[in-house]
Amino acid sequence: MFADLHTTTTKSQPILGFSPSETKITPSEFKYSKGTEIYGEAEPADYVYQVIDGAVRSYKLLSDGRRQIGAFHLAGDIFGLENDDVHRFTAEAIVDTTVRLVKRVSLEHVAQEDLIVAHSLLNMTTTNLQHAEDHMLLLGRKTSLERVAAFLLEMDRRLTAAGIMALPMCRRDIADYLGLTLETVSRVLSYLNDKKVLGFIGQNQRQIVLLNRGQLAELDL
Amino acid sequence: MFADLHTTTTKSQPILGFSPSETKITPSEFKYSKGTEIYGEAEPADYVYQVIDGAVRSYKLLSDGRRQIGAFHLAGDIFGLENDDVHRFTAEAIVDTTVRLVKRVSLEHVAQEDLIVAHSLLNMTTTNLQHAEDHMLLLGRKTSLERVAAFLLEMDRRLTAAGIMALPMCRRDIADYLGLTLETVSRVLSYLNDKKVLGFIGQNQRQIVLLNRGQLAELDL
DNA sequence: CGGTGGGTTGAGGTATTTCAAGGCTCGTGG
DNA sequence: CCACGAGCCTTGAAATACCTCAACCCACCG
Predict the structure, then answer these.
(1) What is the topology classification, in CATH, of domain B142-218?
(2) Quick one: DSSP state of residue B44?
(3) In which residue ranges of chain B is pLDDT below 70?
(4) Distance CA A170, CA A182 (A)
(5) Given this model, what pLDDT does residue A20 score?
(6) Which of chain D's bases lie under 7 Å from a protein CB?
(7) Is there a smaller number of Cβ atoms within 10 Å at the N or the C end of chain B?
């Protein structure tokens, strides 16, 4: 799978919030260029990943091409962690992305001996579960306006720097995350722009500044 | 919370697939009558539950009453397991239901010492996560027909006895699970009945026999 | 420069919801 | 024992939120 990739093994660095100095875990770094698949659904889950820089989308496909993005992974996020032997999503780099990765088996080895690590695996899985549970409510019961508002607040929380949110993903990605079409997402964003709830900066429409978080939050009850 | 309930403490019986004979875990049994709340969203998670007999729905509410059911818990299922201190769903008995319950702290105590138990907690959480991930795809991207088909196959797998599926939940519950209205669910079931994909038995429309699983499965790609 | 990959916007279509009526079953009380 | 109401389910007709199809614009890049 990684045969054609540069294997730039780096010095040991913390992953998962614990120092692996005395363990056998030696993370490596990889780079995936925009649009590249990191792993596919149902492929063996040999590695666990952490985003160093960039952004990743995890999604499932139906046979006719309909796509549901389950999560976006941004700088710092860990993804690809499966308790099972296979990945349940396809993961793709949204932009040029650097990841750190460790062998899953070595991680499990450590977890077998270290209760702290085992606990942190459970914690990560629970965090993922919690996100999925909230997302079920969004997908099952919220309007397009509420979905986009929730998305903006989530991204605001996760990647806003200096008041500006620079979205790495395109409208189609947002739509497939929210269970909408890209046109609907675009229309809602235009609507929120008209209402001065947000503003676009620059020319590519991916830099957004939230002008009225409170108004968005009211849509998120 | 349980002050008004009969505390029929029973002899120790296996929960979570391990025998607690040498641990301090002593499960008790409770009965909840139809429609009763077992715990509420954001309440402290003091107990973990297992359905002995009956059925339970776990759901989230929006402020205006829209409801999303995240899961149905049937005989044998464990629910209410939170890594956090609070429940993230409200749980209600769909029909008269008997549950076994154990104190969450005692379970965590055991997990602290026993790696097998710790691992089984992770496994359960992963199972829940997997279900939620599949359900996101259903809620975000499937048609009403595909949703009902998936629901029928899930229930067929989980509770069919002697070829007959006796649904404990009403149309509204199914609708709130599938992100539809009860009318749409009813229409799709009528449609599948007309097409001889399923048949209703008896008079209350809750006993269903699947006549053509293959045709349903084709809708589930 | 021409093409490609976003993004926006309009017009029309449709799957699902909403609103409404009616039927059936079952438990309860007169 | 039967009438009655409540709960649940179905079905029809109308409304609508969102999707589909299409045109157009703009930035970027070879």
Answers:
(1) Arc Repressor Mutant, subunit A (1.10.10)
(2) B
(3) 1-24
(4) 9
(5) 45
(6) 8-13, 17-22, 26-28
(7) C
b/e burial code for range A37-53 (CB count within 10 A of at least 16 → b): ebbeeeeebbbbbbbbe
Using alpha carbons, select from B134, B99, B103 the residue that is nearest to residue B23: B103
The nucleotide whose C1' lies nearest the CA of A66 is D19
Beta carbons of B99 and B53 less than 8 angstroms apart:
no
Domain ranges of chain B: 8-139, 142-218
pLDDT of residue A11: 40
Longest distance between any two alpha carbons in chain B, whole Å: 56
Of B68, B133, B134, the CB nearest to A141: B68
pTM, 2 dp: 0.91
pLDDT tens digits along A180-221:
999 999 999 999 999 999 999 988 999 999 999 999 999 988
Residue A161's pLDDT is 87
Q: What is the second-level CATH architecture of the domain A8-139?
A: Sandwich (2.60)
Q: Which residues contact A19 (CB under 8 A, 6 or more apart)?
A: none
